[in-house]
Structure formats: structure tokens, C-alpha cells
Specification:
Structural class: alpha+beta
Largest sheet: 4 strands, antiparallel
Radius of gyration: 15 Å
């Protein structure tokens, strides 16, 4: 998913796949997904959206990804960093 974010790719399937790999149990037909304020999935169904516009919005320094499992009132906030070329290069230049 981080590579899709780095590549400004509004691929909602990658995001929902990452949610599935998280280990949290949920019903995929209830999930809502919003990326950069644009609804991409509602109740498990993809919505029409302007991919170029969302891709452009993903160039911002911070990208909001909201995955609503529609299973109650709990929530969590997760912060991550980019997976840029420099990040990969720096981490490939040393061994531990």
C-alpha cells in the first residue's frame, strides 16, 4: 500500500487488501473507503471517481486514508512515512 501512496496511485484494491492482511476481522461488503477526501468504496462497492484528480491530490505531503469497517464506534489513527527512492537507497547501503 505504501508504494501505491508513493506512486500517487488511487488503487482502492491495494488499500482494502492491506486492511485484510491486518488481521482485523471485518465484512468486506460493509467497508467504506475515502482517499484524500474522495469516497472510493461504499458498502464494499467501488464508486466512480476521477482517478487523475485523486492522484493529483495524493501528491500532498500528507494523505488521508479513511477505512470505515462500519462495525461500531471505535477508531484508530496510524501515521506512517513514505517509501521513497531515498528511503530504499539509504536502507540498502548498510548492513546490521
Amino acid at each position: 500500500m505504501k508504494t501505491a501512496l508513493f506512486g500517487n496511485d488511487p488503487n482502492w484494491g491495494r488499500i482494502l487488501c492491506a486492511a485484510g492482511y491486518s488481521g482485523v476481522g471485518f465484512d468486506p461488503v460493509r467497508v467504506d473507503l475515502t482517499l484524500c477526501g474522495v469516497p472510493l468504496v461504499r458498502r464494499g462497492e467501488p464508486l466512480p471517481f476521477e482517478a487523475a484528480a485523486v492522484s493529483g491530490a495524493m501528491k500532498a505531503p500528507e494523505i488521508a486514508v479513511l477505512v470505515d469497517l462500519c462495525q461500531g464506534n471505535c477508531g484508530a489513527t496510524v501515521w506512517t512515512c513514505d517509501l521513497s527512492y531515498d528511503y530504499v537507497r539509504i536502507n540498502a547501503e548498510y548492513t546490521t
